[in-house]
Task: structure prediction
Amino acid sequence: MDTYRNHSLAPYTTVKIGGPADTFIITTTTDEFVQTLKNINKKLVILGNGSNTLISDTGIRDTVIKNTANKIEYLSDNTVRVESGVQLPFLINDTINHSLSGLEEFTYIPSTIGGAIHGNIHGVNKNNFDKFLVSIEIFDQNLKTRKSFLAKDLNWSYDHSEFQQHPEWVILSATLKLSPGDPATLKQTVTDITAKKITTQSMNSLGSTFKNPQNDFAGRIIDEELHLKGFRLGDAQISEKHANFILNLGHATASDYYALIKKIQSEAKEKGFLLEPEIKFLGDFS
Result:
């Protein structure tokens, strides 16, 4: 376990943007993670891959924990127990090598397992991550205890998931139920999904900036209604490949990125569209 003071968070986000944390702790096992959570009584932030989080230029005045616990256990009946710090791309490849299918539809998503569960990410086949969940172990920061739940007993609605209702819950691990599959076929599926996504989605972004409005697409609105595809403020640019992605061209600040988001929202509102951010904001954006 490593502890740092006034430590830059930019390297831990996909857009390489963000100021320092007053205290930054990296834990490498679930036991370390839990012990750290037990010992901290003030406000803290759990940082996954930083793939959907914009951190302000002034950083975070609280303690930030990055959990890198990465144990994977293959159990009976095609089930897998995974610690929340495991990288999703690694798990996809590992399960394929164990002749297990299901997770390949989440290819090209730079998330940890904890982040995938918390955000209930969706794959190319329109399945959400909860489809594969059997059970989840969490740490309750209020009660300072570990708890386990059957996934089917939790609320997985898109806008009001159980984890949004209980911000004191920190995901520690999960058990997934997968299906038998042929590794060669599954690897080809991963290759095909990657080839398609790479033409429209850049890893030098925070993923989809806005949620898709009902029966519409945020990217379509930004491109066809607002005509903002390719527009930039400083080094933050709306992707020319897909208008719902904002890129860091090299030296973008959080202020650039945030100002571009607000511009899109403002122009969308003028034309009768409400665009709600899908990404989270940490720190001071006043």
Remarks:
- The chain has seven helices and 16 strands.
